Amino acid sequence: MPWLARQVVRLVVVLLCVTLLTFFIVNILPGDVAIVILGTLATPEDIAGLRADLGLDRPMLVRYVDWLGSALSGDLGRSYRSGEPVAQAILDRLPVSLQLMVMAQIIALGISIPVALLSVRKPGGLFDRLSASAAFGFLAMPNFMLGIVLIYLFSVTFDLLPATGFTPMSEGLWDNFESMILPSLTLGLIEWTVLMRVLRSDLLTTLKEDFILLARAKGLPPWRVLLQHALRPSSFTLITILGLNIGGLIGGAVIVEQIFALPGVGRLLLGGIFNRDLILVQGTVSFIAVGFVVINFLVDMLYAVLDPRVRHVRFRS
Amino acid sequence: MSASAAKTVVIAATRPRRRWHWALALPLGWIMLVVFLAITADWIGLPDPSAQELILRRQPPSAEYLLGTDNLGRDMLSRVIYGARTSLIVGICAPFFGFLIGGAIGMSAGYFRGKVDLLAVGFIDILLAFPSLVLALTFTAYLGQSLFNVTLALGILSIPAAARVSRANTLAWANRDFVLAARTIGASNWRIVTREILPNLLPPMFAFWLVAISVIIVAEGALSFLGLGIPAPQPSWGGMIADGREALDVAPHTALIPAAVMFATVLSLNFLGDMVRNMVDPRRSAL
Amino acid sequence: MPQEPLLSVRGAQVSFSTARGPLRAVDGVSFDLREGRTLGIVGESGSGKSVLVRSLIGLVGASSGAEVAGRVLFEGRDLRALSPREFRGVLGSEIGIVFQDPMTSLNPVMKIGRQIGEGLRLNRGLDAKAAARRAVELLGEVGIPEAERRAMQYPHELSGGMRQRVAIAIAIACAPKLLIADEPTTALDVTVQRQILDLLQGEQRQRGMAMILITHDLGVAAGRADDIMVMYAGRAVETAATRDIFRSPRMPYTEALLRSLPRLSDPTHTRLSAIPGRPPDLARRSGGCAFAPRCLYRTEHCDDEQPMLTTDGARGYTCFHPRGVAPGGQA
């Protein structure tokens, strides 16, 4: 089977397993959902009625297939609390989460790439050691802690940026941007450390290659050697990490949305968990997991675009 | 690359590095202090971490309350120390649990190969397909909040990493001469795995476990921060930071002190973890 | 000398600091190269031949942790005294270099045409279009069929020999006066080695370039170089016209190298003689001749004292017991 087809088959299998596992966790773990929803004072008839309503009296695999069928047609069921269609609820909140993650990623890349490029110009030099220490420090900072520290600095002490709340883009681009700065900084300031370390180490490897010598022998100034010859061949691990870290980024987004009261998918999920809203949680977790798997798949595909060698030979790692 | 150029590279890489032995004392000392206080918390005359003194809410640090009091007038020092106990219990036990299961999975995958390997790798892939915090949230939400359940949920999260490390190392060791020799004299699989492979697996697993502790402490903090970790009256650093967040403008110390303690602890653990990992596996020191 | 040499090197030194102390990879090498001539630098791996040449053109230097000393005059200009910018100008437009392995010396993620045109745009001020056109022409000149199509391909899509042709096209793109070929055929299949050497020599003659041909194989240098410099343990141990080297080597090391070459005139199954022992550890130099431990003619004198350069007409060698010279004939 050609490489691409194999990857797609693998993707589909993983997606099936992931949704099944979600279903399993939400449905099998202790605590009858009907009792959780209705409370311990409910009569047995009420519980039986609700179980029938939710279809809980049928075998799990049957319910999974049902759920999967409707999920494929875009129907993730309705929230038990609000009656809102889960798919719609997710789509409404998705732009906020996406904006948060994209801005965070831009911040992370915007810091890590220049810092890595500057550090490899003199490995072991002052800048290199300072940036390594800074990265080590930020790496030890959990995002919920960094969020609080940023709020304390920028909102409480200097009153520069709003501490919480979200302004939609429709109410002004700048206001929207302002309300997203601290949240995306919180995510980005942690993310850059990993990216910088990976890129720095790959750059150092690349810089020992003969084609870098050849580029220098062509008379290219050092910064052009770095940008035009070293950066791209050094960015493959970076892209892998970028893909892998999206999991961390999603988890981070849940926390950051909570800290800064942003109406994103993460907060929707938390609300669902606190409210014991089974169908909402199931839909949101599946959506997040599927999104994560698909993004990682796309990142793998991105290799082929960036590294012409992959199209012919399987990639090294 | 010609041989002489290759040599330059080697030379550049082996240039002696300055070692900062004194810098090791600081993180090691901090961790020892935290562990000591967490163990002896009951006997060093700390006030009850849950005792509320509502008149004395949000007191800044003073002689009586060394680290001040929180939103409900509880002694911060006491809560930080009991919080350390929570963090350490979860941080040490969860990876241990994950490593038992993940280690077993990884070892069987690496030793038996074939279908077992395929299954194990598939299982790991599925677990890794969830953003870890989301998985932890879902687990604790449905298991119910308690110290045990949080530990269990975070333990499950550390299965994939542990399985990967043990699988890779088992693969590397299973083909060594002494293992093949053991096989030819008719040793049972169980005996080979436990006597020949496991001892070689322990050093890298130990180094990884040290790193996992700080990761799990952060994850526990995140769960508690979201209110889905350690249940309320029991002190936990993440929970304390979440509590303090409400009074950030009037009593910033209620959030910043547990944050600082947590930062110092995680930083120290990362530092020590790096040191140990460099000792166990010099190849990884580059990253 | 009828004219000033194109490249003149005096007392070139390169040392690296290592955990075991300084390592002198190149130790006081001097030579001249006139326009249009070819100098073969021959030595075993680790003899310092690559490091020497790379240090001359600044590819080994402070940034790679090396300490470099000595004078390098190119067209009468002291290269070491130039500003980094001026130096890059000379490097880019006057000197071309071909490395050993075209697998690693071409950027894997950049199209071939662009890699060739890059130097032209920078050093000759061509615009993107003109550079691309010239790149295609150059590909044709180095013998690559379907140059237009190849220019749009990536290095991995070409065979090893083709890649080395591309590397040569890059080296000669700006019409340099000096071409450095650093083991240009070592990484290639035996069948294409000769083609590449012929191509190098052809381009050199046609363009009147001077060439430094670095090789570990005396046989490669034999038909191509006007002069040969043999290096051992970072020193130039013998320099002479190629014909003289082959006819009557002075240095026992050169003699040993020659003996290890297979000859067509030898009966079949003649055993090739290998040089016993290994090259010395450069970080632990003794006071005497570096080749002494492996030398057939070694005396106590050789262990105690470093032989200085003896000049004999156009040739030079560093040996107390030169071959082909009547004993006592030389001081």
Short description:
Chain A has 317 residues and is mainly α. Chain A has 13 helices and no strands. Chains in contact: A-B, A-C, B-C.
Can you offer a commentary on this structure?
The complex is a heterotrimer of chains A (317), B (287) and C (331). In chain A, helix 7 crosses helix 8 (173-207) and helix 12 (265-274) packs antiparallel against helix 13 (278-306). Chain A is built from 13 helices and no strands. With 317 residues, chain A is mainly α. Chain B is mainly α. Chain B is elongated and about 75 Å long. Chain C has twelve helices and twelve strands. In chain C, the strands form two sheets. In chain C, strands 6-7-8-3-9-10-12-11 form an eight-stranded mixed β-sheet. A four-stranded antiparallel β-sheet of chain C has the order 2-1-4-5. In chain C, a hairpin with a 2-residue loop joins strand 1 (7-18) and strand 2. In chain C, helix 4 crosses helix 5. Classes of the chains: A mainly alpha (317), B mainly alpha (287), C alpha/beta (331).
Q: What key attributes describe this structure?
A:
heterotrimer, A: 317 residues, mainly alpha, globular, C: 331 residues, alpha/beta, 8-stranded mixed sheet, 12 helices
Distance from first to last alpha carbon of chain C: 26 Å
Number of helices in the DSSP assignment of chain B: 11
Query: Which series of helices and strands of chain B comes N to C?
Result: HHHHHHHHHHH
Average predicted local confidence, pLDDT of chain B: 78
Approximate helicity band of chain B: over 70%
> Assembly type of the shown chains?
heterotrimer
Poorly predicted runs of 5 or more residues of chain B: 1-18, 282-287
| Number of distinct helices of chain C | 12
Q: Specify the helix fraction band of chain C.
A: 25-40%
Alpha-beta content class of chain B: mainly alpha
Q: What does the main sheet of chain B amount to?
A: none
- The poorly predicted ranges of chain C are none
State the separation between the terminal residues of chain B, measured CA to CA. Answer: 24 Å
Radius of gyration of chain B: 23 Å
- Write the H/E string of chain C, N to C: EEEHEEHEHHHHHEHEHEEHHHEE
Percent of residues in beta strands of chain B: under 5%
Biggest interface, chains and residues, is:
A-B, 50 and 47 residues
- Structural class determined from secondary elements of chain C: alpha/beta
Reading side by side through the largest sheet of chain C, how are the strands ordered?
Answer: 6-7-8-3-9-10-12-11
Shape of chain C: globular
